[in-house]
Amino acid sequence: MSEEEKKEQVISEEPEKLEGKDREEPEEEQNGRAFWISGLTALGVVYGDIGTSPLYALRECFFGVHQVPANRDNVLGVLSLILWSLVIVISIKYLVYVMRADNNGEGGILALMALLVPWRRGDSPPRVVVLTLGLFGAALLYGDGMITPAISVLSAVEGLRQATSALDEAIVPIAAVILFLLFVFQQRGTAGVGSVFGPIMVVWFLTLACLGISGIVQNPDVISAVNPTYAIHFFLQNRGSGFLVLGAIFLVVTGGEALYADMGHFSRRVIRTVWFVAVLPSLLLNYFGQGALMLMDPGQNKEPFYQLAPVWMVYPLVILATAATVIASQAIISGAFSLTRQAVFLGVFPRMSIVQTSSKQIGQIYIPMVNWLLLAATLSLVFVFRSSSGLAAAYGVAVSTTMVITTWLAYHVAREKWGWGLFPALAVTVAFLVVDFSFFGANLFRFFAGGWIPLAVGAGVYFIMTTWMKGRVLLAKRLKDKLMTLDDFLDHVRREKPVRVPGTAVFMSADSKDISPILPHHLKLNGSLHEQVVILTVVIEDSPYVTFSERLTVQGHEEGVLQVVVHYGFMQDPDVPSAVRRLQKDYPKIDAEGATYYVGGEVLIPTKEQPGMLLWREKAYALMVRNAARPFKFFRLPLNRVIEINIHVEI
């Protein structure tokens, strides 16, 4: 067995252990030591985003775009809302309810949408709605991906103001340099530094807890905010302005979607345990500690997080906070890479160059185009808004929209996959939607303060997704007339008896039923055919993983022709040469090492003469096709043995 096959088998068999089982108890986590090591890593990967919210969330309630006076009733009311938001949204909705809706262990809105398989089961109106909302929700997460690093790192570096005013003008440049280095580092992969994420985040959460306790000790009265009547009284007293503050309170739960998306890296048991044992207590202690500080000196503590610390601790705390926000940003960037790979393999995004940066962890990938676009967007936000308070106004609109969509998709999973009755499914969904729409409504009032930016980004990504999907369907229809059935091709070979040359030719075909037009085109141009012909189709399934034993479907025919379908999950990277090497075991005449790969390329000609999309949209699709990753890169074909045959197609 070659090294590539060994690597593929290791990666493929990892999910096989979990297939059909509860991801809560994978075999490797039965060992207590392995469980806690996994939990240590989860602190940085899963909870980095939500764990850095104390830097700015409470501050924005009293000194942000929509603020309320920092008097006792308001402080206790806001703290009560923060506590119950964390309990209802994160603890109950995501950790107990939504995380049950995993797609063979993978989470996130695209995996959830693939679980409902809307585009592979017909075009019924309900499934079209599921597809539309699922794609839009996924597109909005890119807005989160560019704002989270900017607001997190800026809020950390702003702590320097507590030590000295001399560095005020340097805060934005320092944050920009840190972010630039973070994105540049992505091409090296994160496997090497991943092991230090956990320990740093342990120190971070311990610091959050200790700082919070020091504040609570000075004013224990703040603990009374546990009573939910303070939250109710807050709304009754502040009415409209109290509702608008929900936009700032939402900042404490913005990591919920990222938490769900990280299910593929950790089991439910690990994620839940770490939340209830470490993360939730640390967050609540810190928020309540900040609240206690504000109760002692209302209106004066405009940076309550840093003002909890003694003066001598400010510089070390800034360094620690910066490290924590870099880790949180790393998790978001990695999530954007993972989301993009899912979208590409599910056929809703143009092919992109995907670099595997680790031979051991399938989740360790790097996508250059996504990385540089996120860098440009993040730095632009830093230089335009210049403060975390300014960015906080833009934060939340996109994520709150995605949370509404996730709740709605989870309802369909409860009905279709879990077998829930209509009443219990509706009751749970409506309860969560009341909370989700409250946050969504409050965030809409931040639209003109910057909230339009992530929505615009999401709309742009959604346009790319839908145009790519519709374009692929349109192209398939145009190519249908050029396709030849395998039986017709074999009859042609028998009749014409072309010259057979030694060796193996692999013809990549998009359709597993018909053969690609490049095969008869090649035969017509050259008048010859290899002795061994492999017609190979790569199929990306709706499941995240396909096991090694289920990778190939092979059908042998006369005239030395094999029809092969190679199956991958949407979390696996296609490797066609490795699949061809596997064929050689059962078909020794195939020369896997010397095979020539033939791939088709389409030169698209947008025209009004053919029914399809609007002309300007057809031109956009043609542009995407020209700039998509070439097939030989996407399928890892050896460059020196690839022949590309282009076909002109009017769309």
Notable features of this structure?
single chain, 651 residues, alpha/beta, Amino acid/polyamine transporter I, Rossmann fold, 2 domains, six-stranded mixed beta sheet, two-stranded antiparallel sheet, 24 helices, 59% helix, elongated
Describe the structure.
- This protein has 651 residues and is an alpha/beta fold.
- The protein folds into two domains: 37-471, Amino acid/polyamine transporter I; 483-650, Rossmann fold.
- Helices cover 59% and strands 10% of the residues.
- It contains 24 helices and ten strands.
- It has helices at 3-16, 32-45, 48-51, 57-63, 72-97, 109-115, 125-157, 171-185, 191-218, 229-249, 256-261, 268-296, 304-307, 314-345, 368-385, 388-394, 397-416, 422-444, 452-480, 486-496, 518-526, 576-586, 615-627, 631-634, and strands spanning 355-356, 365-366, 484-485, 499-508, 514-515, 528-540, 552-557, 561-568, 596-605, 642-650.
- α6 runs parallel beside α17 (397-416) and α19 (452-480) crosses α23.
- The longest helix is centred in the first third of the chain and has 33 residues, at 125-157.
Q: Could you tell me the mean pLDDT?
A: 83
The third-level CATH topology of the largest domain is Amino acid/polyamine transporter I
Strand order of the largest sheet: 7-8-6-4-9-10
**Poorly predicted residue ranges:** 1-30
Overall SS class: alpha/beta
Q: Give the tally of β-strands.
A: 10
User: Please, how many helices?
Assistant: 24
Q: Which sheet architecture does the biggest sheet show?
A: 6 strands, mixed
In short:
This protein has 651 residues and is α/β, with parallel strands linked by helices.
